[in-house]
Amino acid sequence: PGQLLIYNKSNNTASIENQTPDKVEAWTTGKLVFYKTPVNDVFLQLEQRYDVHFRYDNSLGDKTITATFDGAPLEKVLQHISFVWNIHFRQHGDSIDVR
Fold first, then answer.
1. What three-state secondary structure class fits 42?
2. In this structure, are residues 69 and 32 in contact, taking their beta carbons and an 8 Å threshold?
3. Most buried among 18, 29, 65, 76, by the most CB within 10 A?
4. Looking at the predicted structure, is the pLDDT value of residue 28 above 80?
């Protein structure tokens, strides 16, 4: 429990990653679970979940997010990220500017 096997077909390698059990089974429950997840990866997952597009530069650096969202609307997720990292969001239709 709490381990994830990752197999790379292109070079036939495998690795084991330790993850919280919530994160491993999150896809089955619809939860968004982030554990020390780079903010760029968080934005990619939010784009897929909420059908939006984030516009940002690389100034976010190595910031990470640790949080769990269970069916939360996008606005609540963005409020949390904004509070943690003092990142500001401005939405224009389906695009979100990050500053």
1. helix
2. yes
3. 65
4. no
**Nearest one of 89, 9, 4 to 54, comparing CA atoms:** 89
Map residue 17 onto helix, strand or coil: strand
Q: Copy the structure tokens of residue 82.
A: 């904004």
The label of the residue with tokens 């990292």 reads 85
pLDDT confidence band for 23 (50 / 70 / 90): low
The rounded distance, in Å, linking the Cα atoms of 86 and 89 is 10
Residue showing tokens 């516009």? 55
Q: What share of the chain is helix, strand, coil (3-state, %, to 5)?
A: 35, 35, 30
Helix axes 74-85, 39-50, angle to 10 degrees: 170
> Structure tokens of 5?
């096997």
